[in-house]
Write a structure and sequence with these properties.
- The structure is a single chain.
- The chain has helices at residues 2-6, 13-34, 74-86, 145-153, 170-174, 183-186, 214-220, 254-266, 298-303, 325-336, 353-357, 359-369, 389-400, 445-464, 479-486, 490-500; strands at 44-46, 67-70, 95-98, 114-117, 128-130, 136-140, 157-159, 193-200, 205-209, 228-239, 243-251, 273-280, 294-295, 310-320, 347-352, 380-385, 409-415, 432-438, 470-472.
- The protein has 520 residues and is an alpha+beta fold.
- The chain has a domain at 243-471: FAD-linked oxidases, C-terminal domain (Vanillyl-alcohol Oxidase, Chain A, domain 3).
- The strands form three sheets. The chain has a nine-stranded antiparallel β-sheet.
- Strand 5 and strand 6 form a beta hairpin.
- It binds flavin-adenine dinucleotide and 2-acetamido-2-deoxy-beta-D-glucopyranose (3 copies).
- Residues 56-57, 96-103, 107-108, 118, 141, 163-165, 168-169, 171-173, 175-180, 224-225, 229-230, 360, 473, 507, 509-510 line the site of flavin-adenine dinucleotide.
Length: 520
């Protein structure tokens, strides 16, 4: 628009029409080079109106694809991959599966390539629930976890391991790990999958599990979309809890807080969900950490003031059946009696299992109504070894974080024994490590730069102090950095790439391998 206004001397209407026509011809011929009419599929390709595929939750990277495929059948995906493969190395064309586009730095985008809209595949695939001793559900990889929850609940069942937010797809979270407050017990989501159906970078449709085609199965889990497009997944289920007691307590000392967290995750008899958050209140703004919670002792709680100190909020849930409500209160009382939180800061609420699991969606609706959901999200997710967490907390929470009003900062430990070391996900060396997640939205351009520079300072500190920290939802731009990220696992990762996606067609937005250049 502004270009036309400023250069109206050059662009006469006739010239403009000619220009538009010219562009259309070029675009049309481009479409045919990307996708020839000989490619038979049941779904459809679109060549315009694809701006949505150049957006993600991070809202910082925007690369338009040449085409978007809305597949109806798995064979549509396989044919498309085979077609790109047949075009050979010179075409440079890439393919990105797009789940719900909740990546942070363009990971589900394909600059000038083909984006496959995985949610379109759902219509042709019913969710199938199997009861029995080891119940499971077979789902399309484009399915949102919230829909899986609703479907499974009809049978009194539910998946065991979650993410904090359920409007994410199975394929998207399994390509990373899927970590939340249940991971200390059940492991991440990638530890709760029995079988996958995958379209490899060679266009082959392969069913894989820990027993069959195991290398592909393990490679794809946490594999950042590098080895294949997951089209279907078999997910472990358990009997669904009905209600949860949802508890928050505060600490002013990090080491007391983290010691309690570690004791809780290693205890036999413990809570069902264990997370934690950092509350920095230096600007004096009121944080909503306790909104919709009721204090156990209202009078004492009302006297509690943080005085601008950094606080640590331990967040717990215990599942229960309303019919045994008496027992549950006794049990919680017992479990809480072993903790060292500030006594007046016990806050409890009671909600349905669904309402608890879908809690971030409630926050989303509030943020949306204030126009705060579609802002850039300069998030940083780290996995910090247990032996270094106090040092990390002292420097980062103590000196670098100035407030947490723009979004939560999560911190909680998990036990590596619940993770399968054959998958592609990269973890710190130690048995226990913490997920530390900085999850702000940037209010304006200025804010974005501040958050990005904070992230850089945090990463620089981890590096300089040799903390052995690994990024979760990793983001690097050079292969040197990726090699360091993978460490001893790099060779395996490259071998798997050569085996399953030798032309480096898949998930270019992760920037691990270059399409045009040879991957070695
Ligand atoms: C509000 C919010 C809360 C979150 N909370 C958590 C959390 O608690 N725990 C956690 O672990 N993560 C969390 N995440 C991160 C989330 O797991 C990742 O961002 C995930 O990638 C998003 O899923 P998606 O379906 O939108 O994937 P996309 O962004 O669409 O895709 C992610 C990557 O996977 C690839 N991909 C997508 N589908 C497939 C497929 N079927 N086969 C192969 N590759 C595929 C894409 O090409 C891309 O590289 C959160 C994200 C948001 C926005
Ligand atoms: C982690 O899990 C392993 C295996 O179950 C167990 O032996 C170990 O004690 C656990 N560590 C902690 C700190 O809970
Ligand atoms: C934040 O700190 C101010 C004083 O600096 C205090 O008045 C306020 O209650 C604190 N907010 C919370 C949620 O603790
Ligand atoms: C995975 O763990 C097993 C058993 O603890 C160990 O023998 C093996 O070397 C590990 N593999 C990798 C790739 O780290």
């Amino acid at each position: 628009m502004s270009f036309m206004e400023r250069s109206n001397i050059l662009l006469t209407p006739n010239l403009l029409i000619l220009l538009v026509f010219f562009c259309m011809v070029i675009k049309l011929s481009l479409c045919f080079t990307v996708i020839p009419s000989s490619l038979k599929i049941q779904g459809s390709f679109s060549f315009h109106g694809n701006e949505f595929a150049a957006r993600d939750f991070g809202n910082r990277y925007h690369f338009l694809p040449s085409a978007v495929l809305r597949p109806k059948k798995v064979s549509d995906i396989a044919s498309t991959v085979k077609h790109v493969l047949q075009m050979g190395p010179a075409s440079g064309l890439t393919i990105a599966a797009r789940g719900h586009g909740h990546s942070l730095q363009g990971q589900s985008q394909a600059p000038q390539g083909i984006v496959i809209n995985m949610e379109s595949l759902i219509s042709g695939q019913e969710m199938q629930i199997h009861r029995g001793r080891f119940p499971f559900v077979d789902v399309s990889a484009g399915e949102l976890w919230i829909n899986i929850l609703h479907e499974c609940l009809k049978y009194g069942l539910a998946p065991k391991s979650w993410t904090d937010y359920l409007h994410l797809t199975v394929g998207g979270t399994l390509s990373n790990a899927g970590i939340s407050g249940q991971a200390f017990r059940h492991g991440p989501q990638i530890s709760n999958v029995y079988q996958l159906e995958v379209v490899t970078g060679k266009g082959e449709v392969v069913v894989c599990s820990a027993e069959k085609n195991a290398d592909l199965f393990h490679g794809v889990l946490g594999g950042l979309g590098q080895f294949g497009i997951i089209t279907r997944a078999r997910i472990a289920l358990e009997p669904a809890p009905k209600m949860v007691k949802w508890i928050r307590v505060l600490y002013s000392d990090f080491s007391t807080f983290s010691r309690d967290q570690e004791n809780l995750i290693s205890a036999e008899n413990t809570f069902d969900y264990i997370e934690g958050l950092v509350i920095v209140n230096k600007t004096g703004l009121v944080n909503n950490w306790r909104s919709s919670f009721s204090p156990e002792e209202p009078e004492q709680a009302s006297k509690f003031v943080s005085d601008g100190k950094t606080l640590f909020c331990l967040e717990l849930t215990k599942n229960f059946d309303p019919q045994e409500s008496d027992n549950i209160n006794q049990e919680i009382k017992f479990l809480l009696s072993k903790l060292n939180y500030i006594p007046s800061t016990l806050f409890v609420t009671e909600v349905s299992y669904t309402k608890f699991l879908d809690r971030v969606h409630s926050a989303e609706l509030k943020l949306r109504s204030k126009g705060l959901w579609d802002l850039p999200h300069p998030w940083l997710n780290l996995l910090v070894p247990r032996s270094k967490i106090n040092n990390f907390a002292e420097v980062v929470f103590g000196n670098m974080l100035t407030d947490t009003n723009n979004g939560p900062v999560l911190v909680y430990p998990v036990n590596k024994s619940k993770w399968d070391n054959k998958t592609s996900v990269v973890l710190p060396e130690e048995d226990i490590f913490y997920l530390v997640a900085f999850l702000p939205h940037a209010a304006e351009n200025d804010g974005l730069q501040n958050f990005l520079s904070l992230n850089k300072r945090i990463l620089d500190f981890c590096e300089a102090a040799s903390l052995g920290v690994k990024q979760y939802l990793p983001f690097y731009t050079t292969q040197v950095e990726w090699r360091r990220h993978f460490g001893a696992r790099w060779e395996t990762f490259v071998q798997r790439k050569l085996a399953y996606d030798p032309l480096a067609i898949l998930a270019p937005g992760q920037r691990v391998f270059q399409r045009s250049i040879s991957i070695l």
